[in-house]
Amino acid sequence: MKIVVVGGSGLIGTKLVNNLRRRGHEVVAASPSSGVNTLTGEGLAEALTGARVVVDVANSPSFEDKAVLEFFETSGRNLLAAEAAAGVRHHVALSVVGTDRLLASGYFRAKMAQENLIKAAGIPYTILRSTQFFEFVSGIAQSATDGQTVRLSPALVQPVVSDDVAAELADIAVEEPLNGTVELAGPEPIRLDELVRRFLSASRDARKVVTDVHAAYFGTELNDRSLTPGDDPRIGPTRFEDWLSRSVTQRT
Ligand SMILES: NC(=O)c1ccc[n+]([C@@H]2O[C@H](COP(=O)([O-])OP(=O)(O)OC[C@H]3O[C@@H](n4cnc5c(N)ncnc54)[C@H](OP(=O)(O)O)[C@@H]3O)[C@@H](O)[C@H]2O)c1
Questions:
Q1: What pLDDT is stored for residue 252 in this prediction?
Q2: Based on C-alpha coordinates, what's the Rg of the chain?
Q3: Measured at the alpha carbon of residue 47, what is the angle toward residues 5 and 183, in degrees to the nearest 5?
Q4: Which of 36, 132, 146, 169 could form a disulfide with 43 if both were Cys (CB 3.0 to 4.6 A apart)?
């Protein structure tokens, strides 16, 4: 089966492409670095010829409000139109748990717009909403850093490792479309401030985490329901502590 992974050179995309190739599928890794650009439409029709499934794991190069909305709206429109023309049978997309609760944030408004375009397009689809990746914890710390201080909400999160996200997407890509949304989280809830504290400490990073219930997370305040999954999420098995000790060992 021919499967196109849009954003196939990214963190999730690279792992997903490898996972699907190991299962014997014909996989095209599509992104600007291989001549396929969903913003401009360049290379899209050629990449999609004969494809049965498209998995969209692209991300905006800029998280600035206007740029990220433009990215997900324009890319979504171009991609879905090209899929309709090519007769694609299943559109799979990766979104974020809690997107609909976080619309004070420009990034989440853009992800909501992406989801809405998919639902309106008429192509059978499955949306996987994942929690934050372990690999993104350093980006969360960076976005909340001022000098040597990292100001973070103590809201509960339930992060997941990127390999488990890629494995779940690979399963979804070869199954029938759900025409619905499923959630994926890691095995353990943890408070966001504590998660980043553990990461910085294991990385021997001298920055100090300050707990602040009003600290903004990409433009929006959080509570314990903001980023945590609903009643019946799929669970990626990898534990944060195991990933952390593995990745710290690799770096030393
Ligand atoms: N970070 C998290 O914790 C988290 C949690 C849940 C869901 N997600 C979602 O996961 C998805 C993937 O994230 P990621 O961290 O794997 O992304 P990433 O590593 O930043 O990779 C982004 C990918 O998008 C591609 N891309 C950029 N501009 C493009 C364009 N104009 N046309 C086509 N492709 C383009 C890039 O291609 P080039 O390399 O060629 O530039 C790259 O392959 C995102 O949609 C994000 O919303 C993230």
A1: 64
A2: 18
A3: 20
A4: 36
